[in-house]
C-alpha cells in the first residue's frame, strides 16, 4: 500500500535505529523509548456477556404483564403496545429517540416467566439497518416512524404468563 | 545522526536566546525554513494535535465560513497556512479492491494505522489482521496521549486509535454476534477469531489497555463499574460514575455522567470524562434547552480541547499526541439538518482555534485539521435556484454524440421548473411541514441586511443535500506548525499515518 517499503531505505532506517540505540542518541530526546511495531497486547478478560435474566421475579406479575427492565439503552427508546401474545412471544413497537443515524445492531430480549414467577425461557429480537456488505436497508427504520418487533421464546420449560424485556445491544452508526 | 542532533540542539538554544524564552511562539509563517528543517529532525515537533470534523467536506467548510464570518471571512481552520486534500476510499473486505465511499471506521483506521481496510473495521486490515495504531506507538514511546470526541468515545473515529475490533458495532457494554462478528456471503456469521480481542467490546478494551491518558467524550452507557475499577487501578481519575457494582446491569438511574465542572476540577495526569450516556448533545439543541437542563452541564468541544491540552502538556517531557473529533457534523449531515450541521462546524472550528492558540504559544506543536469523508453531498446553490430533486424532469443526456455541444438543450424549458409535489418551499421556512420536500434550507450570513431571517427566500446562503449517506469526495486538510508543509499535498488518507509518525518519531514507520 502506501508504506515506504523500499529495502534500501528500510535497511538505512534500521541501521540508524541501531546506531541511535547504541549511542544513546534518539533525535535529541535522550529518554525516548523505542517505537513498537506490534499492537497493544494487554491481557483482556473474555468479552462481556449481557447479564443473564433473573431466575425468578422479585415481585409477582399479573397474567399477561410485560415489564421493561431498566438497562444501558432503555432510555434511548420508546416502547409502545407491548403484548404477550399466544403465551410465547412479546410484540410491540420500538422507536429510537436518541439518534437518527443507521442502527448497526439492536437486540431486544424477552425473558418469560410462569405463574409462579419462575424463568421458563428467553427470546431475542435482532435488527440492523446497514448490512456491512451492501450498506442498504429496506422498510421502516427504528428512528423516526419506528419498527414493530416480536421476540419469540426459543426453548420453553413451562407456560409463560408474563415477560420482562431488556435491551442489551443498541449501536447507531 | 549524533552530529545532526547536536546541531539541532545548538539551533534550538540560539532561538531560545533570541526570543528570550522557549515558551514564546517560535513558529508563525510557512516561510520559517529553519524551523521547518528542525521540525523534520524531531527536536522541533514535540506535540501533534490531529483534529477532524467527521463528515466535513469542502462545502461544509465553505458554508460554515459564509454563515458565521461572511463571504470574505475565514474559519479558524482556513487561517492555517498549509492546505491540501485527502482521498478517502476504503477497500472491499478480504481484498485490496477499492470501495470508493468509506465509512468512519475504515477511514480512521487508515490514518491511525496506515492501512486500507473494509468499512466497519477498526484497527484491523482488510484481512482481519490486527494493526498497531499511532496512539499505541506514541504511548509506548513515552508520549502523553489523548482522545476526545463529541460522539460516544467507543464510536468508530476515536475507537480506531485505541481498540481493535472486526466490526465498529462491537462497542459494549456486552458482546453480541450481530454487533461483533462479520457475516459471510451466505448470511451466516464468521467463525470467532483466535484473538478474542477482535470481538471484545471497545469499551472493555479502552478501560484496560491504557492507550490514551486523557479520554473525553460521550458513551457512558457502554461502560460498567468493572471498567471504572480497571481504569482506577491504572491510575486514572474517573469523572462521574460508571454505576453501581451491586446491580446486574446499569441504567440512566445508576450511572452518573461527568460534568464540565468535574472536568474543570480534574487534576490527574490520566483522566476519563464521559459527559453523556450517548453522544454529546448537539450545540444548537443544547442552547435551546432551559437553564438547569442536565445537558447544559456538558462541556463543548472547545472546553474539552483546552482541558485535554492542559492536562497532556503538564509535566510532560516527551510531548503528546492528541486526537480530537467533531463528530456531529456527520451525524447531523446524515439527518440533512443544515442548521445543526452548521452549528457543529462552528463548534469544531472553535476547538481548532484552541489548538492553534496553544501551538502558537508552544512553538513545537503541529496542528492538523481534516475530515474522514464527506457526508450527504452538501451543496451551496445559487439563491433563488433549485436542484434536480425539485425539478419537474431530470436533464436527459441526449447530447453525448455532438462534439460542438450545440444541439437542442438537454432539458426542455417546460421541464426545467420546480415540481410542486417535491418542492414545497424552503425546508427551514415555508416548507418545513412538507415531508416530501426537497427544497433547500436557507440561512442569513453577516453580509445580509439586518432583518433577513433564516428560512426566508431573502437569506443568501442556500444549502441542499444530495442524500443521507457518505460520498466519495476528497476532503480538505489544513496544517499549522513545524512540518505542516508536508500536508500541503494531494494525498491518500493512509499517508497521514506516515506523516504524523515522522512528525512524532523523526523516522519512517517500520511496519
Ligand atoms: Zn457518517
TrEMBL record, chain A:
Record's signal peptide: 1-28
Origin: domain of life: Bacteria
Key word Signal present: yes
Keywords: Signal
Protein name stated in the entry: Lipoprotein
Species per Swiss-Prot/TrEMBL record: Kitasatospora paracochleata
From TrEMBL, chain B:
Keywords, alphabetical: Hydrolase, Magnesium, Metal-binding, Phosphoprotein, Signal, Zinc
SMART domains linked: alkPPc
Family annotation (CDD domains): ALP
One Pfam family matching this protein: Alk_phosphatase
Signal peptide from the UniProt entry: 1-25
Source organism, top-level taxon: Bacteria
Cofactor(s) this protein cannot do without: Zn(2+); Mg(2+)
Keyword Disulfide bond: no
Top EC group: hydrolase
Entry's transmembrane regions: none
Family annotation (SUPFAM superfamilies): Alkaline phosphatase-like (SSF53649)
Assigned EC number: 3.1.3.1
Annotated protein name in UniProt: Alkaline phosphatase
